[in-house]
Amino acid sequence: FRNKPSFHYVRYGNKSILSVGGIYHSAEKLKYLFLKIWQYHFHFLFESYGIRIKKIPNNYFTFLGYTFDVQNKIIAIRAKMLEELPETSLINKELCSITPILSLIGLLAREGFCDALGHPIGKLAWSTLTDEGIFNRFDQIWRNL
Known about the structure:
Elements: E1 6-12, E2 15-21, H1 24-42, E3 60-63, E4 66-78, E5 87-98, H2 101-111, H3 124-127, H4 131-144
Antiparallel strand pairs: 1-2, 3-4, 4-5
GO molecular function: RNA binding
Subcellular location: Plastid
Organism: Sphagnum fallax
Protein backbone atom coordinates (compact mmCIF):
# COMPACT_ATOMS: atom_id res chain seq x y z
CA PHE A 1 0.00 0.00 0.00
CA ARG A 2 1.35 3.43 -0.93
CA ASN A 3 1.20 6.58 1.12
CA LYS A 4 -0.67 9.44 -0.45
CA PRO A 5 1.56 12.50 -0.80
CA SER A 6 0.49 15.61 1.07
CA PHE A 7 1.13 19.17 -0.09
CA HIS A 8 1.12 22.35 1.96
CA TYR A 9 1.60 25.82 0.45
CA VAL A 10 2.49 29.01 2.35
CA ARG A 11 3.10 32.46 0.89
CA TYR A 12 4.51 35.38 2.87
CA GLY A 13 5.72 38.55 1.18
CA ASN A 14 7.66 37.57 -1.93
CA LYS A 15 8.61 34.15 -0.57
CA SER A 16 6.72 30.91 -1.14
CA ILE A 17 7.13 27.57 0.59
CA LEU A 18 5.74 24.31 -0.74
CA SER A 19 5.90 21.39 1.66
CA VAL A 20 5.76 17.88 0.22
CA GLY A 21 5.24 14.84 2.40
CA GLY A 22 7.03 11.83 1.01
CA ILE A 23 10.48 10.86 -0.15
CA TYR A 24 13.25 13.04 -1.59
CA HIS A 25 12.81 11.60 -5.08
CA SER A 26 9.19 12.77 -5.27
CA ALA A 27 10.29 16.28 -4.23
CA GLU A 28 12.90 16.30 -7.02
CA LYS A 29 10.25 15.17 -9.54
CA LEU A 30 7.90 17.89 -8.34
CA LYS A 31 10.68 20.47 -8.72
CA TYR A 32 11.33 19.31 -12.30
CA LEU A 33 7.61 19.39 -13.17
CA PHE A 34 7.23 22.86 -11.66
CA LEU A 35 10.11 24.17 -13.79
CA LYS A 36 8.64 22.64 -16.96
CA ILE A 37 5.14 24.00 -16.28
CA TRP A 38 6.59 27.44 -15.51
CA GLN A 39 8.59 27.43 -18.75
CA TYR A 40 5.63 26.24 -20.84
CA HIS A 41 3.02 28.54 -19.33
CA PHE A 42 5.03 31.78 -19.01
CA HIS A 43 7.51 31.20 -21.88
CA PHE A 44 10.24 32.14 -19.45
CA LEU A 45 13.17 30.01 -18.29
CA PHE A 46 13.23 29.80 -14.50
CA GLU A 47 16.61 29.04 -12.92
CA SER A 48 16.57 25.92 -10.78
CA TYR A 49 18.99 27.30 -8.18
CA GLY A 50 16.14 29.44 -6.85
CA ILE A 51 14.31 26.30 -5.74
CA ARG A 52 15.88 24.57 -2.76
CA ILE A 53 14.87 21.26 -1.27
CA LYS A 54 15.47 20.92 2.45
CA LYS A 55 14.87 17.66 4.22
CA ILE A 56 13.10 18.08 7.53
CA PRO A 57 13.90 15.27 9.95
CA ASN A 58 11.24 12.95 11.29
CA ASN A 59 13.05 12.36 14.58
CA TYR A 60 12.44 15.68 16.30
CA PHE A 61 10.86 16.49 19.62
CA THR A 62 9.49 19.66 21.17
CA PHE A 63 10.10 20.86 24.70
CA LEU A 64 8.94 24.16 26.21
CA GLY A 65 8.16 25.60 22.79
CA TYR A 66 11.55 24.72 21.29
CA THR A 67 12.10 22.13 18.57
CA PHE A 68 15.10 19.82 18.96
CA ASP A 69 16.53 17.25 16.60
CA VAL A 70 19.71 15.26 16.22
CA GLN A 71 21.63 15.99 13.03
CA ASN A 72 24.69 14.30 11.61
CA LYS A 73 27.60 16.66 11.11
CA ILE A 74 30.13 15.34 8.60
CA ILE A 75 33.75 16.45 9.03
CA ALA A 76 36.16 15.78 6.16
CA ILE A 77 39.73 14.92 7.21
CA ARG A 78 42.74 14.44 4.96
CA ALA A 79 45.24 11.87 6.18
CA LYS A 80 48.78 12.67 5.03
CA MET A 81 50.61 9.73 3.49
CA LEU A 82 53.65 9.46 1.26
CA GLU A 83 52.13 9.92 -2.19
CA GLU A 84 48.36 10.28 -1.96
CA LEU A 85 45.98 12.28 0.20
CA PRO A 86 42.91 10.13 0.77
CA GLU A 87 39.92 11.88 2.28
CA THR A 88 38.02 10.30 5.13
CA SER A 89 34.90 11.49 6.88
CA LEU A 90 33.90 11.51 10.52
CA ILE A 91 30.24 11.71 11.45
CA ASN A 92 29.35 13.44 14.70
CA LYS A 93 25.84 13.67 16.05
CA GLU A 94 24.91 17.02 17.52
CA LEU A 95 21.75 18.36 19.10
CA CYS A 96 20.26 21.26 17.16
CA SER A 97 17.55 23.52 18.48
CA ILE A 98 15.16 25.68 16.52
CA THR A 99 13.83 28.75 18.31
CA PRO A 100 10.14 29.32 17.68
CA ILE A 101 9.77 32.54 15.72
CA LEU A 102 6.76 33.86 17.65
CA SER A 103 8.54 33.85 21.00
CA LEU A 104 11.60 35.47 19.39
CA ILE A 105 9.45 38.22 17.87
CA GLY A 106 7.76 38.71 21.24
CA LEU A 107 11.14 39.10 22.95
CA LEU A 108 12.37 41.62 20.37
CA ALA A 109 9.09 43.53 20.64
CA ARG A 110 9.44 43.76 24.44
CA GLU A 111 12.96 45.15 23.99
CA GLY A 112 11.68 47.72 21.48
CA PHE A 113 13.46 46.44 18.36
CA CYS A 114 10.27 45.60 16.45
CA ASP A 115 6.50 45.74 16.74
CA ALA A 116 4.25 42.77 17.53
CA LEU A 117 4.17 41.77 13.83
CA GLY A 118 7.97 41.62 13.58
CA HIS A 119 8.47 44.85 11.63
CA PRO A 120 11.68 46.61 12.76
CA ILE A 121 11.55 49.91 14.60
CA GLY A 122 14.48 52.24 13.98
CA LYS A 123 15.45 54.84 16.58
CA LEU A 124 18.08 57.54 16.25
CA ALA A 125 19.27 56.83 19.82
CA TRP A 126 20.44 53.36 18.77
CA SER A 127 22.85 54.75 16.19
CA THR A 128 24.63 56.91 18.78
CA LEU A 129 25.33 54.16 21.32
CA THR A 130 28.94 53.48 22.27
CA ASP A 131 30.44 50.04 21.77
CA GLU A 132 30.05 49.30 25.47
CA GLY A 133 26.39 50.36 25.32
CA ILE A 134 25.77 48.02 22.38
CA PHE A 135 27.42 45.12 24.23
CA ASN A 136 25.43 45.86 27.40
CA ARG A 137 22.18 45.99 25.43
CA PHE A 138 23.03 42.68 23.71
CA ASP A 139 23.92 41.12 27.07
CA GLN A 140 20.60 42.28 28.54
CA ILE A 141 18.65 40.73 25.64
CA TRP A 142 20.70 37.51 25.86
CA ARG A 143 19.96 37.13 29.58
CA ASN A 144 16.22 37.55 28.91
CA LEU A 145 16.22 34.59 26.51
